[in-house]
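Quick one, tokens below:
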């Protein structure tokens, strides 16, 4: 067992100094290949940090990845929020992502001591490094075959407690890997049933469990917004569905009380759809008070949807259809009080002319991310002052932050939900919407994410360029939660829905 006694203070040997020069050369070479040489104000502190970390008792190795200013860190194949929320750094600063690997076989107490020593080294280096030059993101990786842990030390006030929490959560049978940060935790398990109780266990350690995934990707359970936490009944529901015969994939997304819980289930064949549908409607799985779960079943040639246990969300009142200029009044409202106006009605007027390009003004209502997918909702308002009719799907192109059009983007019809383009007569001032969905793409230092969407609202009209930064807040309602770029790169495939009165992702 390695000794964890503090090392005696000593002058670095010639070997260490030569090793430090090798580190500097390696850093310069690695980043020069990407066309952007880091300055000495970045290279020197990183080399000092690596030398200090590699010299700690109990540390097997330490490595670094540098991200240039504006590049943004990437944790490919991982969720973008929760444990992997982007670390804070000053505008124009480089980012050093340090991965420290402890020696194998350490006890929890010894691992805690390693974490505290890593934190002490980084505190000293950080204090000598201007924040405007370099930001840090430090991880402690114990890459065991099972019960592995990854602890994000950046942002934690008690690194030892974070290590203890990770080891405690990773202790269960079938738990392959647990990652924790200051506020969040996620886990990789063999089967979803082996994540039973992890949500409440994480809460006891002061953390939100935001993601559980099986190592084969068959089941994926996550809280969409990082301020939300998974609850044990939600994880248990996904585990139960995974065990239903003919089910091949389960994806459950908890979007909070306002947007609800959605369950996407893939089955092996069409014949099993009815049986799985009946199981979901008759399920006796307990749900948290007031929670409902909508589901969609997908088979090769069939789909089905409904609510788990047949329990639909409560609707306290129904909107009364009115003309565009009239406010809606709640049925149970007190005399003289009114509710907020409902959207205008969309009467079918065969005589209404087709909308021209200038009649519809597009904007980005919001963007969002969940379960390896990205979402964008386009909205177009009728600014012509008269009713006009639209039918079809907007054509999209994208422009990167460099100003260059994104090449080879393929626009595909939607793979789920409402795909039929219907004629909509849009009243003056009213809006139609179209959803856009694509798979997460890996961006890095040399990529050019999209910062604008070019929208052709109707065929033959001029494209209107809409900056991503002009979008509204994400569905969590936080006005500061807005994207400035989209991970749409050359060769992307984006699914685009036709214009609808109220868009549904299906």
């Amino acid at each position: 067992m390695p000794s964890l006694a503090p090392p005696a203070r000593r002058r670095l040997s010639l070997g260490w100094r030569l090793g430090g020069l090798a580190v500097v050369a390696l850093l310069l070479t690695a980043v020069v290949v990407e066309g952007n040489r880091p300055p000495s104000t970045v290279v020197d502190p990183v080399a000092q940090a690596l030398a200090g970390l590699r010299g700690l008792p109990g540390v097997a190795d330490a490595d670094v990845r540098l991200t240039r200013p504006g590049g943004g860190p990437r944790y490919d194949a991982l969720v973008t929020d929760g444990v992997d929320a982007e670390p804070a750094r000053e505008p124009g600063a480089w980012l050093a992502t340090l991965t420290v690997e402890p020696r194998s076989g350490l006890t929890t107490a010894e691992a805690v001591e390693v974490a505290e020593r890593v934190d002490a080294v980084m505190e000293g280096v950080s204090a000598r490094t201007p924040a405007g030059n370099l930001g840090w993101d430090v991880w402690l990786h114990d890459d065991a075959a099972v019960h592995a842990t990854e602890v994000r030390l950046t942002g934690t006030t008690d690194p030892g407690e974070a290590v203890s929490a990770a080891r405690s959560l990773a202790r269960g049978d079938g738990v392959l890997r647990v990652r924790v940060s200051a506020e969040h935790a996620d886990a990789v398990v063999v089967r979803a049933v082996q994540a039973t109780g992890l949500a409440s266990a994480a809460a006891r350690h002061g953390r939100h469990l935001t993601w559980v995934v099986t190592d084969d990707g068959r089941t994926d359970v996550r809280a969409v917004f990082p301020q939300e936490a998974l609850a044990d009944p939600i994880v248990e529901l996904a585990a139960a569905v995974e065990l239903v015969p003919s089910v091949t994939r389960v994806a459950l997304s908890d979007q909070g009380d306002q947007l609800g819980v959605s369950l996407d289930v893939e089955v092996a064949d069409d014949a099993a759809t009815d049986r799985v549908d009946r199981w979901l409607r008759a399920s006796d799985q307990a749900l948290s008070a007031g929670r409902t779960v909508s589901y969609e079943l997908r088979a090769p040639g069939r789909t089905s949807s409904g609510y788990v246990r047949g329990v639909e969300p409560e609707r306290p009142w129904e909107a009364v259809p009115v003309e565009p200029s009239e406010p809606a009044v709640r049925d149970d409202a007190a005399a003289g009080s009114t509710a907020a106006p409902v959207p205008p009605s969309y009467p079918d007027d065969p005589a209404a002319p087709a909308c021209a390009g200038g009649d519809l003004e597009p904007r980005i209502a919001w963007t969002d991310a969940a379960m390896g997918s990205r979402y964008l909702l386009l909205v177009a308002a009728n600014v012509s002052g008269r009713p006009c009719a639209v039918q079809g799907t907007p054509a999209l192109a994208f422009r990167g932050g460099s100003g260059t059009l994104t090449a080879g983007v393929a626009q595909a019809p939607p793979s789920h939900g409402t795909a039929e383009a219907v004629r909509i007569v849009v009243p003056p001032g009213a809006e139609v919407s179209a959803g856009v969905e694509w798979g997460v793409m890996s961006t890095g230092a040399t990529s050019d994410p999209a910062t604008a969407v070019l929208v052709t609202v109707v065929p033959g009209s001029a494209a209107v360029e809409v900056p991503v930064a002009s979008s509204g807040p994400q569905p969590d309602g936080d006005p500061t939660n807005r994207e400035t770029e989209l991970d749409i790169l050359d060769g992307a495939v984006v699914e685009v829905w036709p214009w609808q009165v109220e868009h549904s992702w299906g």
